[in-house]
Specification:
The protein is 14% helix and 35% strand. Strand 9 and strand 10 form a beta hairpin. It has two domains: 45 residues; 130 residues, no CATH class. The strands form two sheets. It has an eight-stranded antiparallel β-sheet. A two-stranded antiparallel ribbon has the order 1-2. By secondary structure, the chain is α+β, with helices and mostly antiparallel strands. The chain starts with 11 loop residues before the first strand and ends with a strand.
């Protein structure tokens, strides 16, 4: 059968998944039809956007091990320009942080956290590919030559109080959390599980 035309015109038929010319029943490339072409292009863009979004947000669930009581057990100075002394940093050892599904509480005078508990807490995960940094970041564990939980990406638990992002806790090796403050990374180890 000879193709007379592959132009798109108003009268087309679909037969067994093929687009046919209504006048002579000859198959026509459906991507040449302007309406179908626009639909196919929109569908491809939607699929590509969905895949990119899924990869970017692969770690949206809060890992269960995060919930519980965490204690600062060590610190590492980075950058060499801290306004805090090592004695001030050492005073943070033993301070605790309690992360629960509906509450976020900490000892008084813990880092810059203040003395009030977090009201209306919300948690979310933030993942950056290794080497990607937000404007204003003071760096990450990997950036400072320390040990993040993964060598491929930096992963943070973002804590919001009353809908305002307040704290960024980075996941470190051996299921530790790390917090950057005034030229130091403070490492927290889990000391109690989440309450029943």
């Amino acid at each position: 059968m000879k193709l007379n035309s592959t132009r798109c015109e108003a009268g087309k038929l679909v037969f067994d998944g093929m687009v046919l010319d209504a006048q002579n029943g000859v198959p026509v490339n459906f991507l040449r039809c302007s309406r179908l072409r626009a639909f196919a292009a929109a569908l491809m863009l939607l699929a590509a956007g969905s895949l990119a979004y899924a990869q970017q947000n692969r770690s949206q669930r809060i890992p269960p091990f995060v919930y519980g009581t965490w204690t600062i057990n060590r610190f590492v100075e980075v950058g060499g320009h801290s306004p805090r002394t090592k004695e001030q940093a050492n005073a943070q050892i033993g301070k605790t942080l309690k992360i629960r599904v509906r509450t976020f509480d900490h000892d008084n005078d813990m880092l810059w956290f203040g003395n009030d508990p977090c009201k209306s807490v919300n948690y979310r995960m933030k993942v950056n590919k290794e080497g990607e940094y937000d404007v204003g970041d003071k760096g990450t564990l990997g950036f400072n030559g320390l040990e993040p939980a993964s060598n491929d990406y930096d992963e943070f638990l973002v804590v919001s109080c009353s809908k305002r992002e307040m704290y960024f806790l980075e996941f470190a090796k051996n299921q530790e959390l790390a917090v950057y403050y005034d030229g130091y990374f403070f490492f927290l180890r889990k000391t109690k599980g989440a309450p029943d």
